[in-house]
Amino acid sequence: MGTASPVEGLRGPIAVVVKKITGWYFAMAVLFIALGLFGIVEPVAAGLGVAMLVGWLLMIGGAGHVIAAFKGGGVKHVMFEVLVAIVELAGGLYFLMHPFMAVETLTLLLAVVILAVGVLRVVWYFRLKGVGGAAWLLLNGIISLLVGGLIWFHWPSSSVWAIGTLVGVNLLITGIARLMFGLAMRKLVSHVAG
Questions:
Q1: Does the structure show a pLDDT above 80 at 103?
Q2: pTM of the predicted model as reported, rounded to 2 decimal places
C-alpha cells in the first residue's frame, strides 16, 4: 500500500478553491497596502481614524457590560459589570467627542508600551546573550527604546505622526506579507497541478 503525497489533493477541484481563496487574499493585500500607504502619507487622518475606532469599540464593550449586568449573577457581579460599563462608556464617549485629545492619549500610551517592550528585549538579550542570534534581540530592543523615547520626549507633538504612521507601516507590511503568501500558494498549486 503506497502513501499518498501530501499535495495529492491539490490537483483536482481543490486547486479551484485555492485560487479563489488566494484571489481574496490578493484583494485583502491590496486593501491593506492602500490603507498602509494612506496611513503613512496622511498620519493625522489615520490617527484620528484609530482614535474613532477605539472610541466605538469602547462604546460597544460598555454596552456589552450593561447587557451582562442584567443577566444577574449576584450583587458583586452586577456591580462589577456596571462599573466596567461606566468606565468603558465614559472612555468611548471621551474618544468620540475629543478625537484629537484621544490621539494624544493613545500616543502617550503607545510610547510607554514601546519603551517597556524595549527594556524587556534588552533584559531578555542579557539573559540569552550566549544564544546565536541574540544580537538581533538587542538591536530590536535598542530600536524600540529609540522609537519609544522619540515618541515620549516629543509628546504631545509626536501625536501628529506616531499613531497614524505606525499603523500605516503595520498595515503596509501586513499587506505585503499577505500578497507574498498568496503568490506562494498560487505557485505551489500551479507546480503541483502542472
A1: yes
A2: 0.67
